[in-house]
Design goal:
2 copies of one chain form a homodimer.
Chain A lengths: L13 H12 L1 H12 L4 E2 H6 L5 H13 L3 E6 L2 E6 L1 H15 L4
Antiparallel strand pairs in A: 1-3, 2-3
Helix pairs in contact in A: 1-4
The structure holds a DNA duplex (30 and 30 nucleotides).
Amino acid sequence: MAKIKRAAAGELPEAQLRLIAKALADPRRHEILQQIGASREGAACADVRGCQAITAATLSHHLKELEAAGLIEIVRRGKFAQLNLRRDVLEAYRKHLGAILRPKG
Amino acid sequence: MAKIKRAAAGELPEAQLRLIAKALADPRRHEILQQIGASREGAACADVRGCQAITAATLSHHLKELEAAGLIEIVRRGKFAQLNLRRDVLEAYRKHLGAILRPKG
DNA sequence: CCATCAGTTAGACAGTCATCGAACTGTCGA
DNA sequence: TCGACAGTTCGATGACTGTCTAACTGATGG
């Protein structure tokens, strides 16, 4: 999984745009992201698993994808993992889509 | 390819959201979309092909995906095909992403 | 120290998808 | 009518990916 250096609120590097688009493309990840974003404090890993009919392994895989894309941040505390939405990154992606919208000239 | 009924400027049906996310996930389609969106009059099919090192067959495939997602409109005029960006649909998708951003409560 | 629990990693498998060449359809000009 | 051209459809193929089970790591409680 490629590392993405720093996701400023401004422009996202091309590689990250690709990872984000890919991460968003899977319905499962999309749903996970929605759940994490639903509350301001994020969500616990086990919490997500409780709502999803999904194996721990599969969930872990998807979380890694979301993290690699920079869309979430995973904070490990002892046995547990806390998942936080990177709102700045998602916002930057929205902004990027907005740029496509606007013809140049 | 599933047909999408009407893409109002408001909410997009779940199925279309999935198609859009998927369409956006491929780098090639992303680039094609950018090119189509770059000018207000859209782009000619041959034009896109000229900028892309891509087979006609592959391009046709991608255009079908983009059309199925509702992201572009293909207007056939004689031998040629004119491609127009559906800005309302892309805007609606952006709006949807914005909804994830906002915690409910 | 041991059992249990949360999450990760590894490997396998099935389904999806981007891509191509080749054959096809329909249009235009001569 | 014929040939050239734009784009489409078909079938095959190789790569990727979502999913699982099983084995592992690390933390917590007794």
